[in-house]
Amino acid sequence: MRLNPFRSRAFPGDARHWPGLFTATAAFFAYVYLPILILIALSFNENRTVTIWTGFSLDWYRMAFSNRDIVSATTNSLIIASVASVSATTLATLAALRMASNDRFLGKTGINAVFALPITVPEIVPAVATLMFFASLGFTFGLGTVIIGHIVFCIPFAYLPIRARLEGMDPKIGEAAADLYANPVQAFWRVTLPQLVPGILSGLVLAFIISLDDFVTTFFLGGAGSTTLPIYIFGLVRTGVTPEVNAISSLMLLLSLSLVSLSLFLGRDQNRKTGPD
Amino acid sequence: MPAHPCAVSVQSLSKVFGTGDHAFKALDDVSVEIRKNEFFTLLGPSGCGKTTLLRLIAGFEQPTSGAVLLDGEDLSSKPPYQRPVNTVFQNYALFPHMTVAENISFGLEMLGRPKDQIKSVTADMLRLVKLEAMADRRITQISGGQQQRVALARALAPKPKVLLLDEPLSALDLQLRKEMQLELKRLQTDTGITFVFVTHDQDEALTMSDRIAVMNGGEILQIGTPREIYDKPQHRFVAGFIGEINLVPVEAEGEHDYAIAGVGTLRSDEASVVARGAHAVLAIRPERIALSVPSEGTLPGVVTNVVYHGTDTIFHVKLANGLELRARSQNNTARIQAFAKGDPIGWSVDAASVSVLADDPL
Predict the structure, then answer these.
(1) Integer distance in angstroms from the first to the last C-alpha of chain B?
(2) What does the CA dihedral B73, B79, B80, B82 come to, rounded to 10 degrees?
(3) Cβ-Cβ contacts under 8 Å, A275 against chain B
(4) What burial class does residue B20 get, using C-beta atoms within 10 Å of its C-beta: 0-12 exposed, 13-18 middle, 19+ buried?
(5) CA B167 vs CA A207, B54, B147: distances in Å
(6) Based on the number of CB atoms within 10 Å of its own CB, is B229 exposed (0-12), middle (13-18) or buried (19 or more)?
(7) Which residues make beta-bridge pairs with B70?
(8) What are the residues whose beta carbons fall under 8 Å from the beta carbon of B107, sequence distance 6 or more?
C-alpha cells in the first residue's frame, strides 16, 4: 500500500486529486501553445519550405520589414487600433461613470444589460448590418468606416474593466473629497480619475488588441487602402503559407504580449499591502 | 452681534428615505443644540438615525424638513464642499492613491491655502497624531490604527468648526480602541473643536462625552451628561440601553414612595412622574442594590444564583412576586461571599439611586 499524506487527506470532490488531471492539463496547454511555439520557431527558419528546418535566419523578418504592402498594412492596423481604442475608451469611461453613480433613472437596468451585449452577438451580424447601413448612407468604404466599426465593438471591451474598477472603489471616497472642500470637478480630477487609471488602461489595451486582431468587421467595412495586417495575412495564406507570414504573426504576438504586460504592470494593485513599517 | 452659544443647532429635522410603501422615516422631528467646544455623542443602536443625523449635518443628505444651523447660519443650501465641517468616516475613506501627507493636506489645498501654510499645518497635524515618520507612506502601507489617525488628521487639518466622527473606532481592536478613546478626548481638548461623535458603544459614549444624546427609532430620547444618562435615565429604552439595569414595576403610593406588589415599599428622591395609584417603573442599577441578612428596613428576597466575575459578583435575587433582580457586589475583599444559592436575604436601595420612569412601552 502506498502512503500518500496528501491523497489520504483529500475528499472525493477535490478536483486536485481526480485521476488523469495532469495528463489532461498537459494536453490542454500543448494544444493551445504548441502551434504558436512552432510558428515562432519556423519564423526563424532559413528554408523557404515551411515544414523543413535547415537553419537559423532573420531573413523573413528582414523581408517583412522591406515589404511595402506589409508596412502599409501594419500602419493601417496601428492607426485603426489607436484611434478606435482611444475613442472607445473615452466613451466607455464616460458611460461607466454615469452607470456607476448610485442614482436611478429610467431604463438604467436595461442599458446596463445591453452594454455587454455586443460581446455575445456574432460579429458577422453587426458587420453586415453596418455594411448595409453605411452603403445606404452612401459612405465611401475605407479607413474611416473601419474605424467607426471598430469603435463600436471596442466599447464593451473597454467598458467592462473600467466598470469593474469603479465598482471596486469605496463610494465614501467621493463623499470624503466633497467633505474636504473639493467641488465635483476637483473631486473627479483629483480623486476619482487617478483611482480609475488602472481600469482605463486595461480597457484601452484590451480594446487596442481586440481592434488589432479584428478580421470580420474590417473585411466588411474596409475599402481601398484600408487593408490591415489580419486582412493582408489572410490574403497571403490563400496563396500559400510563407515563412514571412510566420514572421509577421510572431511580431503581432510580441506586440500583444508587450501591451498586455504593460497594462498588467501599470494596473498592478498599488493598494496591495507591502507590509507595515 | 452676540456669539452663538451653540455650534450646531438642529431644528425639527426629519428625513424620510424612499416613498410610498417603502418610505422609511430615519429621523423624526429631531431638535438638538450642540454647544461650542463640546464633545457631543449621538448614541443608539444601528438604524436609530444617528448616522443619518450626522450625514445631514455634513450635507451628504438633504433633510425632508427642518434645518441645520452652524454658528447661527442656515446650511440648508450649501453642498458638503462649502460647509466648514469635516468628517472622520467609519472606514476612513482615505485616498488610496495618495501618501499620508497628501491625504492630510488635501482639504487645505482645496481651500486654496498658500503652499507654505499647507506645509506647516500638515507637519503640525502629522505631529499631533504622531505620524511624522509615516508622512511619505502610502495609505496601504500603514496599519489600521495609523489609518485611523490619518483620517483624524485629514479631517482636523482644515480646522473645521465642527468635526463629525462616524463610529471611527469600530474597526479597531479593543486594545487600540481604548487608546484611541483617550487620544480623541485629548485631541478635542487640545484643538478646542466641537466634536459630534456617533457610536453604538455605550462605554465609548460614557468615557469620552461631555454630553450624550440617546437615540432610538429616529428620535432623541434623552440628552444629558454621561452621569445624568447613566444615573437618571428618563426613558425605559435609555435605562436598558446603557449598562445593566433592573426595571421594577411598581404602583405610586405617595410622592416618593412606590409599592412593589407583594414585596414592600421603595423610596425614591425623584418626584413621581405619575399620579398616586398609577403604575410606574423603577430603574435600579445592579451595583446600587445593597444585600444584607434579612432585617428591619430591608426588603425580602431569595438568592437564586451567584455568578462570580472576578472584580465583582452578581447575585440573582428572586422576590415574592416572582420578579428577579440582579445585584452587583464588588469583590473588595478576598473573603468568601456571605450569601449562597437558596439563602433568604434582605436588600435595600438608597433613595437617590432609584429612578422613576413612566410605565410606557419601550
Answers:
(1) 44
(2) -60
(3) 141
(4) exposed
(5) 43, 11, 14
(6) buried
(7) B8, B73
(8) A180, A181, B86, B154, B155, B157, B158
Collect all residues with Cβ–Cβ distance below 8 Å to A44 and sequence separation of at least 6: A56, A57, A58, A60
> B91 and A175: CB-CB below 8 Å?
no
Q: For residue B17, give every residue at least 6 positions away whose Cβ sits within 8 Å of its Cβ, in sequence order, or none.
A: B23, B24, B26
- The pTM score is 0.80
Task: Using CB atoms within 10 Å of the CB of residue A68, give its burial: 0 to 12 exposed, 13 to 18 middle, 19+ buried.
Answer: exposed
How close is the nearest chain B Cα to the Cα of A202, in Å?
17
The three-state secondary structure class of B275 is: coil
Domains and CATH numbers, chain A: 17-57 (no CATH), 68-267 (1.10.3720.10)
How many Å apart are CA A46 and CA A60, to the nearest integer? Answer: 8
Going residue by residue through chain B (362 aa), what tens digit of pLDDT does each one get? Answer: 445 477 899 999 999 998 878 888 899 999 999 999 999 999 999 989 999 999 999 999 999 999 999 998 999 889 999 999 999 999 899 999 999 999 999 999 999 999 999 999 999 999 988 899 999 999 989 998 899 999 999 999 999 999 999 998 888 888 888 888 888 898 898 888 999 999 999 989 999 999 999 999 999 999 999 999 999 999 889 998 998 999 999 998 888 889 998 888 998 888 777 788 888 899 999 999 999 888 888 999 999 999 988 888 999 999 999 999 999 988 887 776 678 888 899 999 999 999 998 876 55
How many angstroms separate the Cα of B210 from the Cα of each of B42, B55, B153, B166, B167? 11, 21, 22, 17, 17
Residues found in chain B: 362
State the helix-helix crossing angle for A124-137 and A143-168, rounded to 10 degrees.
Answer: 130
Which of B97, B108, B148 to mutate to test binding with chain A, by most A CBs within 10 Å of its CB? B97
Q: Which residues of B touch A182 (CB under 8 A)?
A: 81, 106, 110
Rounded Cα gap, residues A151 and A207, in angstroms: 9
Find out whether B211 and B41 touch, Cβ atoms under 8 Å.
Answer: yes
Distance CA B21, CA B128 (A): 49
Q: 3-state DSSP call for residue B66?
A: strand
Chain B touched by A183 (CB under 8 Å) = yes
Choose the closest CB to A180 out of B140, B142, B158.
B158
Which residue from B60, B81, B94 is facing A182, i.e. has the nearest CB? B81
Per CB-CB distance under 8 Å, the chain A contacts of B142 are 276
For residue A94 the three cell numbers come to: 464616460
Tell me if A178 and B94 make a contact (CB, 8 A cut-off). no
